[in-house]
Amino acid sequence: MYEKIDELKAKLDAERPFTADQFERIDKELTPRRIYSTNIFEDNSLTLEETRFYLETNRMAGGKLKREFQEIDGVREAIKFIEDKIEARKDINEEMIKELHSILTEPIDQVERYHPGEYKDRDMPIIAKDGTRLNFVPFDRVPAEMSALFSWYNEGSGKVHPLELAAKFHYRFTLIHPFFDGNGRMARLLDDFILGKNGYGPAMIEDKAKYYAALHDADDKLPATNRPEASVSLDIAPFIEVICDSSCNCMQIMLDALAETQVPIASDLAARLQTFDKVLSGDSSTDLDKQHIEEKEAAKLAIGREISEYLKGKLQSKYVQFLFSGPAKFQQNNHEYSPLISEVVSRHNYTFAPNESLYEYHFAPNIAALEEAGMTMEPFMKLMSFAVISHDTEVGVFSGLMDIEFGKVYIKQENREEIVMKLRQDSVRELVGSSLFADWELKDLRNLIYSSLDYFFQQIENDYAGESKDED
Fold first, then answer.
1. Which positions make up the binding site for ATP?
2. How distant is the alpha carbon of residue 194 from its chain centre?
3. Active site residue ranges
4. Does 93 score more than 90 pLDDT?
5. For 391-444, how does the pLDDT look when each residue is reduced to its tens digit (9 = 90+)?
6. Domains of the chain: residue spans and CATH
7. Which parts are annotated binding residues?
8. Which residues are marked as site: Important for autoinhibition of adenylyltransferase activity (predicted)?
9. How far is 105 from 92, CA to CA, in rounded Å?
């Protein structure tokens, strides 16, 4: 195990010192993977491609929580912080760890949940996925346990192999759990610091199942008391192996980046296989495919403008104010579509290129104004959705009526005001045409919009008449 990681380190050492260009190549390849691999432990739903896209453009993919992008910001700044500390030849101490936690968690809106840079000041029960309660060091023992951890680390530095030192520091830190939240990310970042300080690659842990299995194996060997202190003499070979394999994989990526060798990304294998099949089949239509995508994007935007011009500000009754909004933007790798787009995709078995966008526009009563006017709410809890999406060489407009309701929904430790939408499947209408907007008949598009809204108004009228009869 140690021979493998030392051999890869020797290969990296032979390339040092890195030039600015080499640093840039390593950072471009490594940083998105490091951020993605640690955030997936926090139930962050962003894919590696979405993480990379956000880092390169600072643009958020649609259909995702803002917090998920803030977590990227936090980890990115934390990585920069530890790299600066390594370059300045600084080492771990209490001040450094608190500052690292502050940098990691401050970008996230829920600062009251994290208390950036502060040890926990009360005990909070943490429930594992299997329903069992996880017990960590009581809050009033955290300062003493952290002080003992620093003393152990300082004593072992230079005497214990950096791999073992990093793994045992990581494990003991998780047993202490000094902060309210962010402890897992902190442990992995401190792993990276100890390894990086000694010339090894960061431990980019990609196998969650193996990681947790190794932690549980170590937990089972612990006594009931003095667990952090006891962990020092514990045999945690499976966990050390996980850290070793993760660092070795990372160093191989670094060596490949230095050699400008293309490293396939696991989550891109489906796309890679499509390229492979094209080569074998002799299909050389890449430029044509790109042209079709550009045509479809232009057509979808033009259709969206037509819908906007036709609806925006023009459809107002004497009694009800209607609101028009959009476009909401989705991409195929979000895995979180609206109810209408989900139905269309399922109904037609549609697939999309990774860079194709799907647009949706909404037309609905102004619920707040109705409520303020004291009108009966139930008949108006409806929304007409228009989706503009593409498939193959065509573009389609789809409409559907959704019943809506408001309520508090608990999502990933966040209380958020959410709108719950349920699509009436029998209300879905569609119009599919050429990817060239110039070929479209505008009267057909306007007929679709009219028939959809006619159905929408009719449902409100029917429900409103029913409510009035009930009141009588």
1. 181-188, 211-212
2. 27
3. 177
4. yes
5. 777 888 999 999 987 654 333 333 334 567 889 999 999 999 887 777 788 888
6. 2-265 (1.10.3290.10), 291-471 (3.90.1150)
7. 181-188, 211-212
8. 42
9. 19
